[in-house]
Write a structure and sequence with these properties.
It is built from six helices and twelve strands. By secondary structure, the chain is α/β, with parallel strands linked by helices. Strand 9 and strand 10 form a beta hairpin.
Length: 247
């Protein structure tokens, strides 16, 4: 994604330099802005920043573009204003065509949504940086329970990174509930089982046991056979039957 952003940036700078040369040569630098084009470099992965949100952020920063003299518009000020959003990772702004302002953004993508018992509500990205919800909706694992920011950064981020890199678990893990001892229960998107994961340790091994159970056992007995599955203990899978399925 960084390569895409750099490619778009290089293209924009090249166009800008060409436009600046022509404008200088012809002495036409006092045109009025007629259009603003916003490009989200990594929007195919997820959308947290939209063109309408960019417009809102600029309005909040008291920056007007369309209808303003081009030579009075500061691209540096636009970039500084947009960087104040916790969801903006990188941004560049340039002028083209004499009447167009171009803005290229790269989003900061969160891994988890934390809604703790202590009232804290935030997203957190892979570096451990907090991001305020600000009305955004995201299809990410939700963390609930007795969880501090320190616990999330130290214990849950490695788990979240593992989940994000695996197609199955990225689609399957809907919620993680943390108890007072730091034990994790996972609520899946598919299946009625509550997964007792235990502490955030031996992460690859636990998920491998769970994957094997999903691939070899559940297709044979049915997805609703068990109400609870535990991979909390080394080299073990412990299951609890759903009473209703035995009636």
């Amino acid at each position: 994604m960084k390569n895409l952003f750099k490619l778009l940036l290089l293209l924009g700078v090249t166009i800008y330099l060409g436009f600046a040369f022509v404008s200088f040569a012809n002495g036409r630098t006092n045109r009025v802005c007629e259009d603003v084009k916003v490009t989200i470099a990594d929007s195919a992965h997820a959308v947290f920043i939209t063109p309408s949100e960019v417009s809102r952020l600029l309005q909040k920063g008291r920056i007007s573009l369309v209808g303003q003299q081009m030579d009075s518009i500061s691209c540096l000020r636009i970039e500084e204003t947009l960087r104040k959003s916790s969801f903006v990772k990188e941004v560049t702004c340039y002028k083209t065509g004499g009447r167009t302002i171009n803005i290229i953004l790269m989003q900061r993508l969160p891994l988890l949504r934390v809604m703790a018992d202590n009232g804290e509500d935030y997203y957190i990205d892979e570096r451990g940086d907090l991001m305020q919800p600000q009305g955004y909706a995201a299809d990410l694992p939700i963390v609930t329970g007795e969880v501090s920011q320190a616990f999330v950064r130290k214990r849950l981020l490695p788990l979240a990174r593992f989940i994000a890199k695996d197609e199955l678990w990225r689609a399957q893990v809907e919620q993680m509930h943390i108890d007072a001892q730091g034990r994790i229960d996972i609520v899946p998107r598919v299946g009625a089982q509550l997964i007792h994961f235990g502490k955030a340790e031996e992460i690859p091994e636990k998920f491998q046991r769970l994957r094997t159970f999903y691939e070899k056992v559940l297709p044979q007995v049915g997805w609703n056979k068990y109400s609870e599955i535990s991979v909390a203990y080394t080299n073990q899978i412990i299951c609890k039957k759903d009473i209703d399925t035995d009636l």
